[in-house]
Amino acid sequence: MRNRRILYLLLLVCLTAGSCSGCGKEQEVTEDKNIIKNPYAGAVSMEGTPVIDYVVPRLLPNILVDTLGYLAGSGKKAAVVKGKKLPEHFVLVDGLTGEEVYRGALEEIIYHSEEGIYSGYADFSDYEEAGLYYVECDMIGRSSAFQIREGQYTVLFEEIYRELLESCRQKSITLPEAISFLEAYEWYGEIFPDEDGDQVPDVLREMRAFVSYMEEKGTEESQEAMYAAFLAKFGYLYQKFDREYATDCLKRASTVFGQVKNTVGRDADTFYALTELYRATGRYTYRKQILDYKSFFEDNSSYLDERSYLQGGMTYIATRQKVDVELCYSFSNNLRDRAEEISKHYEEMIDPVTARNNGPDDLLKGAAVLACDNYFLNNYQYTGVMEDFLHYLMGRNLESVCFYENGEDRSSYLLLLAQLAALHA
Length: 425
Prior knowledge:
Blueprint: H1 2-20, E1 28-29, E2 36-37, E3 63-64, E4 70-71, E5 79-83, E6 89-94, E7 100-105, E8 107-112, E9 117-122, E10 131-137, E11 141-142, E12 146-149, H2 152-169, H3 175-187, H4 202-217, H5 224-238, H6 243-260, H7 268-281, H8 284-291, H9 294-297, H10 307-318, H11 325-349, H12 360-377, H13 383-393, H14 403-406, H15 414-423
Parallel strand pairs: 4-12
Antiparallel strand pairs: 1-2, 3-5, 5-9, 6-7, 6-10, 8-9, 10-11, 10-12
Helix pairs in contact: 2-15, 3-5, 3-15, 4-5, 5-6, 5-7, 6-7, 7-8, 7-10, 10-12, 11-12, 12-13
C-alpha cells in the first residue's frame, strides 16, 4: 500500500513538470542565443479571423458648396471654408482648365470653441461667367465641382416640373404632389409651358387625365378630404379653359366631401378641403364650417407646420368670397410672425458647422412658410433666406450631403424653386 502511494506521488510530479514545459516539448535554442524556436510561438489566438477593435474615422470636406450650382451674380455666402487654421484668401478655379479665375478674402470668420475650428465664407458673386468651377484654399484643399449659370433656378424648377408631369402621365403622382403642382401653377403660371400650343397649360391637361384615372380607381377613405381639395382646386383653375368640365369637378368634390364629413371631425385636410370648396363655390355651409376653426388659429401658430393648414390658410385669404376678417388677420399675423422668427434664427438653423435643425423636412417647412409670406406680402423680403436654405439642403452643410438629390419627396422643393425661378426670370 505504501509503495502504491509513492508511485502515485511520482506520477503526479511528472505530469506537473510536463505541463509547465509547454506540453513536454523543450525550447530549442539556435546558434543565435537571442532567438528561441518554438513550434507554437506563432499561435497567438484560436480565432479564425483577426479581431479589429477600431473604427476608421469619417473624413468630412472642409470646403462646402451647393453641389448643384449657383445663379450667376447671386450667393453672397456661396461657399464655406472650415479648419483648425484658415488662410486669408480663396481662389475660384475653372474646373476644365485648372486656371484661377477669381481671388477673394474669406469673410465673417468665426471660431467654434466646442469644435475647435474656424469657419468663414467665400463670396464670389462678383464673378458671373457661366462654367464649371471649384473653390481652392491653401492648407485646406478644394471643394467639389459646381456650376455657375444663368437661369439656375429655372433649370432646377424645370427638372422637377418634368418629373412631376411624367408622374402625372404615368398615374403615379400622389395627391400631395398633385396639389403642390397645382399650387405652384396657380401662383406662378407664367413659367408653366404649353408645349403643344393648344392654349391649355400642359400641367392642367395632364391633371384632367389624372382626374379621370382617380375616378375609375377610387380613393382610400383616409385620402377623401385631400381628394376633395384637389378636385375643387383643379375645377377652380380649369374653369376658364372648360367651364362645363370644371363644374363637374366641383360637383364631384362636394359629393366626396359630403362623405368625409360623416366620418371625420376637424383636421388639417378637412380644413383645406373646406377652403378650396368655399373659394370655388361660395356656399355658406362651407364658410360656416371654416369658422369652426377660428378658436384653433387664435394665439397659435403650430398649425403652420402642417402643410394642409398652411395651404388652406393661403387659399382662404386669397379668395374673393366673403371672409371673416378676424380669421384672415389671425392667419396672416401668425404667418408673418412665424416668417420673422425663422428669418431671425435661420443662420443658427443652417450654420455649416453647428446647424440646429431637425433635418431637411424641418427646413423645408420653414422655407415653405417664407415662400407663402413672400407671396402674401408681395415684397419677397425673404428671398435671400430661402436661397440660403436651398444652398444648405443642396450641399453646403457639414457632411456635404445633397438632400435634394437624395430625398424621396422632391415635390416639396417645387414651390420654392417656382418662386425663385419666377423672380429671376
